[in-house]
């Protein structure tokens, strides 16, 4: 099988046109039809997270941390987090991944970013991928596997989240075989269960800052200045696929081709007894509802995942301020 990745697909195309009410009504009908026709196949989706992968050098020959240590050099016995997250288009995969990476010492990898970096650095895989794409072809699954594992193989002792791969059962099996052969199988598969109607409303109100990947939503996370990024002040744009008609088609494709991955990983987890791969479904209508479930799952099952030092410092400062406030209140009460 061939992958859907191409350089043209990787280039962002901006559109600033707004959605009209008649368009939304037509798409809602399409969404209901495709959802009703595939209710038995509900599960997981391809990922298109806005969060960019952390920078790294592809041309390196050693693991990034010592055996048995986390990024801070502290030894731990906790299970390593090797995670993929699935959900329908617009389910909040990018938002939730960004929150995990910001708070915890976890590496996030985007397949699109990895492919672009291979091509930019003219690695063997990058040159091969570039020649295939330049001729109008689609990248075979084995090439995409090399793109992904070139980084994963360097992260044996790091916690990571992979975005954008696998997207089919065939790709999933290739990834499983590779990771299992190295003794580093997936440890967590997260399935985001968000109602279709909620996602349709969400993408209609979604605006993005393309260069940074920051995502805003007019309903619950609006920019401070309408139409402009909070940090740079640059104009926000609509993703080309953030319209109801395209969403209906993507949802239909999701149910038809990508959702069987959930059944694959559920069967894999059931067959391992002790469940080297844990599969969880998290339900909610917003990322704020799902976030406590996701964080709770990570903290409960992966004790080696540690908060980033700057997060701990912020917590310590907050605790100190609160303690001082309590002391001041106590003094006031004593004087009274």
UniProtKB/TrEMBL annotation:
It holds the Pfam family ADK_lid. It is an enzyme of class 2 (transferase). Residues 222-241 are annotated as: Disordered. Residues 110-139 are annotated as: NMPbind. Residues 205-242 are annotated as: LID. PROSITE patterns: ADENYLATE_KINASE. AMP binds at residues 111, 116, 137-139, 164-167, 171, 239, 250. GO terms for molecular function: AMP kinase activity; ATP binding; GTP binding; nucleoside triphosphate adenylate kinase activity. Residues 226-241 have a biased composition (Basic and acidic residues). GTP binds at residues 90-95, 206, 215-216, 287. Consists of three domains, a large central CORE domain and two small peripheral domains, NMPbind and LID, which undergo movements during catalysis. The LID domain closes over the site of phosphoryl transfer upon GTP binding. Assembling and dissambling the active center during each catalytic cycle provides an effective means to prevent GTP hydrolysis. Involved in maintaining the homeostasis of cellular nucleotides by catalyzing the interconversion of nucleoside phosphates. Has GTP:AMP phosphotransferase and ITP:AMP phosphotransferase activities. This is GTP:AMP phosphotransferase, mitochondrial. It comes from Trametes versicolor (strain FP-101664). The gene is ADK2.
